[in-house]
Amino acid sequence: MNFCPRCAAALETQTLNELPRRVCPACGYIYWNNPLPVAGAAVIDGAGRILLARRGVEPRLGLWNLPSGYLEFGESIEEAAVREVREETGLEVVLNGFLLSAGAGHRLWPWSSVTFSFFYARPIGGLLRAGDDADQVRFFDPVDLPGQIAFPAHEKALAQWQRDRVRGRGEAWGVGPDVG
Ligand SMILES: [Zn+2]
Predict the structure, then answer these.
(1) What spacing in Å lies between the alpha carbon of 130 and ligand 1's midpoint?
(2) Residues 73, 77, 83, CA angle at the centre, nearest 5°?
(3) Domain residues for 102?
(4) What is the pTM of this model?
(5) Distance from the CA of 19 to the center of ligand 1, in angstroms?
(6) How many angstroms is it from 3 CA to the middle of ligand 1?
(7) How many angstroms separate the alpha carbon of residue 37 from the centre of ligand 1?
(8) In the β-sheet with 12-16, what is the strand arrangement from edge to edge?
(9) Which of 44-58, 100-114, 135-149 has the lowest mean pLDDT?
């Protein structure tokens, strides 16, 4: 962020509460850059495979990621996760556990500051079909995942899924309890 949204003066970087912030020297405005929430889902089918979507748009065009997206006004993170799966993959899911949250982006740049919340989910209907930002969707076996994942936060979620599988966590195998 380069200019003050309140008075249009040039912002400068100052350290406040031990972190760098963009601050307006003219009017005192502080850009805290609190992250936006992003909801995502690890949809696991009855064979223990995970649903990934291939990005049909920039950034990271052609790379695979978990279905995810920004919240609409008034939505809960859980509602957004279910909706994003529906829009990107055509499947109806029920959430059945929390997977992991992960922050991402650059501290000083508002357009990339987000915190992902990933949930486990189980398909309950719909028809698998790529939509929205995705141009391909399919389930992947855990030993046959794509070599490159679109975003580091999604890599973290996949790594946590693998650890949960080793631990025998039911949701990670597609057999967890429904709570969502
Ligand atoms: Zn200002």
Answers:
(1) 44
(2) 80
(3) 36-173
(4) 0.87
(5) 20
(6) 8
(7) 26
(8) 12-16, 19-23, 30-31
(9) 100-114
pLDDT (tens digit, 9 = 90+) per residue, 86-122? 999 999 999 999 999 999 876 666 556 899 999 999 9
Distance of CA 16 from the midpoint of ligand 1 (Å): 17
Total number of domains in the chain: 2
Q: Which of 62, 177, 44, 63 is nearest to 118 (CA)?
A: 44
Same domain, 25 and 71: no
The rounded mean pLDDT for the chain is: 92
**Structure confidence at residue 108 (pLDDT):** 61
CATH of the domain at 137: 3.90.79.10
Q: Could you tell me the distance, in angstroms and rounded to a whole number, from the CA of residue 110 to the centre of ligand 1?
A: 17
3-state helix, strand, coil in the chain (%, to 5): 20, 40, 40
Query: What does the pLDDT read at residue 180?
Result: 47
